[in-house]
Amino acid sequence: MKTLSLTLAALLATTSLAACGRKAEAPATPAAPAPAATPAPASNAMAGMDMAPADKMAKGVGVVKAIDMAAGTITLDHEAIPQAGWPAMTMGFKIAPALLDGVAIGDHVAFDLKLHDGAGEVTAISKP
Q1: Which of 3, 68, 112, 121 could potentially form a cystine with 94 if both were Cys, beta carbons 3.0 to 4.6 Å apart?
Q2: Residues near 60 by beta carbon (within 8 Å), at least 6 away in sequence
Q3: How many domains does the chain have?
Q4: Residue 21 domain-assigned?
Q5: How far is Cα 51 from Cα 34, in angstroms, rounded to an integer?
Q6: What distance in Å separates the CA atoms of residue 74 and residue 62, rounded to the nearest whole number?
Q7: Alpha-carbon distance 38 to 23, whole Å?
Q8: Which pLDDT tens digit goes with each residue over 43-52?
Q9: What is the CATH number of the domain that holds 120?
Q10: How many CA atoms are closer than 13 Å to the CA of 44, on its beta-carbon side?
C-alpha cells in the first residue's frame, strides 16, 4: 500500500507540473572538473651544465674509529655536519685507499665529503 501511495504521489506531482505548463527538471549532473593548469616550461638557462643535483659537498671533523683498506671504508666519529643535515654520530664512509696513507685509528681528522642519496664518500682527509 505504501508503494502505491508513493507512486501515485509522484504521478500526481508530475501531472500537476505538466498542467501548469512547466517541465519537470532533470536531475542536476555534476559539472566536469576544470582541466589542471599546465605548468610554465622550465628555463633552459642551465642546460648543458655538468651538475648532478643530488650530489653536494660537505666538510666535517671527527676521530677515526676503524679503517678497512680492503673494503675501502673508514669509520668516523664525527661532529655535526650542517651541510648534510646530520647530527654528530659514528658512521662508515667509502674512501679511496690511497687517501688512507698516514691515517690511523684514533687520529683527529678534517675531511671533505661528496654526498649522494643520503650517503657520503670521503674525498679528502687530513690531520689538523
Answers
A1: 121
A2: 76, 78, 79, 81, 110, 111, 113
A3: 1
A4: no
A5: 38
A6: 11
A7: 41
A8: 444 444 444 5
A9: 2.40.50.320
A10: 2
